[in-house]
Amino acid sequence: MTDEAETPPTTDEAEMLPPPELALAADHVENSTDATRGEPLAVRAQKRQIELRAALEKLGVDEPSRKDIELAIWSIETLLPADASPLSHVTAADLSRALERSKHLGETAPATDNA
Asked: Which residues, other chains included, contact 56 with Cβ-Cβ below 8 Å and sequence gap of 6+?
């Protein structure tokens, strides 16, 4: 087993590479489900439900993704308790799965400049 050290890029190569923070920003679009990690699950679900309702308002009546978004809203709605009581383990697991399943619903691709 050889221990090969990684060679640093030459000056020309280094000038061509974007700064690491810009490279990450260009490739990474964070959705609300990922952005709210660390918050209580019920709060995350409420925020996602609000976001999905906003996305639904932007869609036309005949949009194919409309039914998917309506189903995701309904799924979250049925799992959230009316009061602020702690979630059972089963409900928390179901709610977490509902958030993961819906995390890309309503997303649109960022506009690119093709000119």
From this structure: 66, 69, 70, 73, 106
